[in-house]
Specification:
156 residues, mainly alpha, two-stranded antiparallel sheet, 2 strands, rod-shaped, Lysis system i-spanin subunit Rz, I-spanin
């Protein structure tokens, strides 16, 4: 009788061990599937982040190229204007305030226009300096727009 009890006890233990092993396999399979799903989700999220970063880099590159073109165009325009001033092809002038009481000779007024306001021509050296100042201002504005575009793109 004791042998039978021991055999039953061993049988129950073996049955419990078998059930335990089956449960462990099932649980292990669930954990594997869950881990694979989480890994795949993380991979998709990482790919999405890389795609967004790449799109941002391309957008910033295009914006940078646009601002470089604008700066180059402005510099080219300023160089043409400086050349035209140097060859006396064009002259800078200022409007004179008739109410200031500062008399100007009639030779400085614009010729051929009857009702035009009186103007005085600027010295070519002063005109070149003014063009240089406006060139620096144009460059600064273009650089400021480039910085603002960069900040807007990165802040999104």
């Amino acid at each position: 009788m004791r042998v039978l009890s021991v055999c039953r006890l061993i049988g129950v233990c073996l049955l419990m061990a078998a059930v335990w092993q089956v449960q462990a396999w099932r649980y292990g399979g669930r954990i594997e599937r869950l881990s694979a799903t989480q890994a795949q989700a993380a991979l998709h999220q990482q790919q999405a982040e890389q795609d967004k970063r790449l799109a941002l880099e391309q957008q910033l590159n295009a914006s940078d190229q646009q601002h470089v073109r604008e700066l180059s165009d402005a510099q080219r325009h300023q160089a043409v204007l400086r050349d035209r001033l140097a060859t006396a092809d064009v002259r800078l002038s200022v409007l004179l305030d008739a109410s200031s009481g500062c008399p100007m000779p009639a030779a400085t007024a614009a010729g051929g226009v009857v009702h035009a306001a009186p103007r005085a021509r600027l010295d070519p050296a002063h005109a070149q300096r003014i063009i240089g100042i406006t060139d620096d201002g144009d460059s600064a504005l273009i650089a400021l727009r480039a910085c603002q575009a960069y900040v807007r793109a990165v802040a999104r």
